[in-house]
Amino acid sequence: MKIYDMHCDVLCKLRKDEKEGRGVSLRQNEHHIDLLRMKQAGYGLQCFAAFVNQGEDKDVAQSALEQIDIFHRQMEENQDLIAPIYCYEDIRRNDKQEKMSALLTIEGGEACGGSLAMLRNYYRMGVRLMTLTWNYENELGFPNINMGDESCSNPFFADTKNGLKENGIVFLEEMECLGMAVDVSHLSDAGFYDVAAHTKKPFLATHSNAREEASFVRNLTDDMIRVIAERGGVIGINYCADFLWNFAPGEKTVSRVEDMVRHIRHMVNVGGVEIVGLGSDFDGIGGELEISDCGKMYLLADALKNAGFPSSVQDKILGGNVDRVLRDLL
Ligand SMILES: [Zn+2]
User: Fold this and answer.
1) What is the distance in A from the centroid of ligand 1 to the CA of 298?
2) 96 C-alpha vs ligand 1 centroid, how far in Å?
3) Which domain holds residue 41?
4) What are 95-114's pLDDT values in tens digits?
């Protein structure tokens, strides 16, 4: 099975490269993700997020649009290696042509400014998945870590009160109608259950781990894992050290493959073998990573094998489960 990864932030890095006058290349670069290393490592599909940051971007919609522009320019330039997908059949067509698939996403619903017209326009530009919030309150709802409100920015305190706003619920309906996947990573605990209550299709947590294994609130409780499993959704394992281990203050944080396997095993135990996928967060995370870039993905494949997962389950985790959900959603 080829590797499917539900979340990376390399578009944001490429936008910075462009702003600072460096060359922009998805094909070959110094970031965690580039196409030549992906090809070598056996990738089938990568989600590329247009990530917006209310705290830094003067205009979040412009930021998203600039990243989407980079995405499409890079797709044109590299059509020998990769092609964007707009429906599930596009993945199969790319497979046949021995090309990788690229799925455009938005991280941070504030890119829509609360406007359904903006949401539909992003869909027309190829966006097929949206993370409802990043780490700020927006027009749709509240995150677990709210960087705009000091009283709600404790990474170990989940927000069980402030969920989706009325507009968020309206957006869910439109997203399901369009065929745009709903991503609850970053969303508050209350928002998670609002999504569960107001959607019918499978939904995703593209880059979140298990809170029982590391208490960071970006991770999911066992109950949430079960809710996603019952709906037929999938959860992408995040490679960030803070999501993997409860580090003591001052302790050197390292993202270890063995910890990733521990989270995967926990999720499989709680939600079954259909629930786990990958959501590296490459180019959105820092620190020391054993899987230092997309070219090192064999480390995880080997670790899953050594951990005793049957080969059919290894395949599901590395890509099969995400493939299934995209078939259901797109
Ligand atoms: Zn994120």
Assistant:
1) 23
2) 31
3) 3-329
4) 999 999 999 999 999 999 99
* pTM check: above 0.70: yes
24-64 per-position pLDDT tens digit: 999 999 999 999 999 999 999 999 999 999 999 999 999 99
Ligand 1 centroid from CA 97, angstroms: 31
Question: Ligand 1: distance of its center to the CA of 238 in Å?
Answer: 9
Distance 280 CA to ligand 1 centre (A): 10
Instruction: For residues 210 and 217, give the distance between their C-alpha atoms in angstroms, rounded to a whole number.
Output: 9
CB 231, CB 192: distance < 8 Å = no
Tokens of 230: 């019952």
Structural domain total, the chain: 1
- Taken in order 40, 327, 94, 175, the sign of the CA dihedral is negative
CATH number of 140's domain: 3.20.20.140
Fill in the amino acid letter for 284.
G
